[in-house]
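Quick question: what would this complex look like in 3D?
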Amino acid sequence: MEITIVGAGLVGCLLACFLARRGHRVVLYERRQDPREQGADRGRSINLAISERGIDALRRLGLDGGVLDAALPMAGRMMHAPDGARTFQPYSADRAQAINSIGRAELNRELLNAATSLHGVEVRFGRRLTAVDERSGRLEFAADGSQDVVADKAQVIIGADGAYSAVRARLQQLPGVSFSQDYLDYGYKELSIPARHGRFAMDPGALHIWPRGRSMMIALPNPDRSFTCTLFWPHDTLAALDTPGKIRAYFAEHYRDAFGLMPDLVGAYQGNPVGHLVTMRCSPWHVTTEATTIGLVGDAAHAIVPFYGQGANCGFEDCVELDRCLDEVGDDFPRALELFERRRADTDVIAGLALENFVEMRDRVGSRMFLAGKRVEHALERVLPGYVSRYELISFSSTPYTEVQRRVARQRRWAAAGAGAALLAALGYAARRRGLVRTRDGG
Amino acid sequence: MEITIVGAGLVGCLLACFLARRGHRVVLYERRQDPREQGADRGRSINLAISERGIDALRRLGLDGGVLDAALPMAGRMMHAPDGARTFQPYSADRAQAINSIGRAELNRELLNAATSLHGVEVRFGRRLTAVDERSGRLEFAADGSQDVVADKAQVIIGADGAYSAVRARLQQLPGVSFSQDYLDYGYKELSIPARHGRFAMDPGALHIWPRGRSMMIALPNPDRSFTCTLFWPHDTLAALDTPGKIRAYFAEHYRDAFGLMPDLVGAYQGNPVGHLVTMRCSPWHVTTEATTIGLVGDAAHAIVPFYGQGANCGFEDCVELDRCLDEVGDDFPRALELFERRRADTDVIAGLALENFVEMRDRVGSRMFLAGKRVEHALERVLPGYVSRYELISFSSTPYTEVQRRVARQRRWAAAGAGAALLAALGYAARRRGLVRTRDGG
């Protein structure tokens, strides 16, 4: 049948590939012009870190090779202390696992090519959704650069149109649709560390972090040997640096080693916009009437903050899960979208972990306690069969997020019990040595 | 100065009175036609229970007498068991305190009369807000029954336009404005118990409750000697009764005593719409630009479910608090609306209590444990100086909601400590009698 997807971003394009493989016709409507014919949208998007969940989804369509070729593996975190000292911390116990840095625009172009190369997929660019009526299935779009209204009618409408989804905006107006948007008091701003003498200015095999307590900067490598840096700062700090002098002085003090690598710091700081960090939840994600069924996937369904590097990975996994739901019900879309609601338990978990990880990244990763804890955790992984850290289960497996939560909770109980038993054994040993306890043998 | 209020409902009208008293000009825009020229909106609104917070606000404007004259005092709950047995439970230890039943439409007419009788207040009916621009202060309204657009410009805009506020809809689009709407899986539907032989069919001095575990019905008296009944049922139960036979059989089984008092049960059940129960939160409630400042009050700022009878009372208290903020900053509206944000701590508390009270009303008020607990609580109130139940502090005082929470938590700690001390004393006495403990005297 024919499926209308609103939004030809990462998740919309990938879902189109899955649906075309199932034999459906797919029409994608996209607000922007074709990004393959334009320059990238610089200064507006965090680099992505594609990890196992995203790769697994791409692999099912044979797209993993091409995407990973364009990406740079990062096998750990490189922490930058205020004095410029660096500490590398591998993501996995065996140091073999990596997350993969790729630009959002580059990945989108790859996925657009993949979708449009498939039979039955069509993308209509420059069409901004202005109205969707669940009673009739009618959609209205404003055509780019004109007053024209383009109308369409669809039996299945999927909103893959991002955190500020126009499809969801309609669902939110329906009684019974619960929704929340929660903003952090933090903004983000992109900066850049260009290549030096044709080479990377820092180690390209790591995700660089400057943890500074209340705020932080991160940097991810690009194929052109630059790094895209992103500040995550409280809005008041971002606004306070309102002169070139203040900007330079602040970076020289707090980001000393990076400051020397940013020749265009002031221009980028003053020119690039401040982005917002929001978590969005919606329930249900779909509505079905006699005329149509409307569903949401990706950020439109569950926008999360970027601190676990899981936004795109989670959206890609949505496509795998929706594909699985369609398998279960023989491509009955209303029933498949009903089944797909079960995924909210997983997306709620990663939404919470992403918020928690912000505190970890900006504050705790810089502490000795945290580094020591990570070393203990990696030691446990080498010693205890089956012990895997939460970060690894999230980033290097496709174990459902809810199952990761349960497993980590179990592991922590075991570790606590083991530590307790070890402590008791040690106390018992000490007591026996001092003759304070009469054992059966000795008594 | 001139203040534009969107919405001439209960809170909009009351706020207009407060602002006019401060010497401001007030223009109110209202979507509906003048309700004083029309019949009431039957079957669409729960009766209100005005209690101390609402009365306190009205008293400050000399409006309490007129409103209370039109209301019926309810001094307690009357529980109706499935077998028809009734149990009365007073709201206060001294049985003297009452909440006051009044129809929303009647109260709105009273407040419209109060507002329009004041110098400088004007109400423009039949104007539905379609756009508000915080950058310019421009408002656009659709005029009732025509295609005309009426525009206005304002330096201060207050959204008092209810749970589905059009003013808040604009704020929600601004980055940094957090918002949530949470629906219960319950709907409500109004029914009626008419007067019998010119008299009330039940005791008009009580709020009647039929607690039925997962669901309930309530009834509040009206001056015409009828009762307005409201079902709070899971949506699936409401939908399941789809024939006159099923409706009659269900009520005969579960609401036996009321069933005999509802001659038009089937007509009302089939004719009246199903309402939704939603909690809405928004933060911040205001935005200030160079051109204008926009704020929210009442349900537009914090819609709550009706189970503590506090929605209107809380909205009226908003007006008192905003008036106090204006006092503090000499009628500087941007600063006053900034100060008014502190009220969210209180409205969050009552939002949570209203949700909790649904469980109490539909389930626990029918149990013997609950009734015994209430008797103990009222006994404590008579015995312990200063001990007042939460229900009384919420309904019969104007202690801030947050302070009520703290005080109730303190009281419960004291009561637990007292019970513990009593238990210890009793154990000590028993032990001494059995000679198990040597006291200093005896040793």
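Answer marked as accepted. The radius of gyration of chain B is 25 Å.
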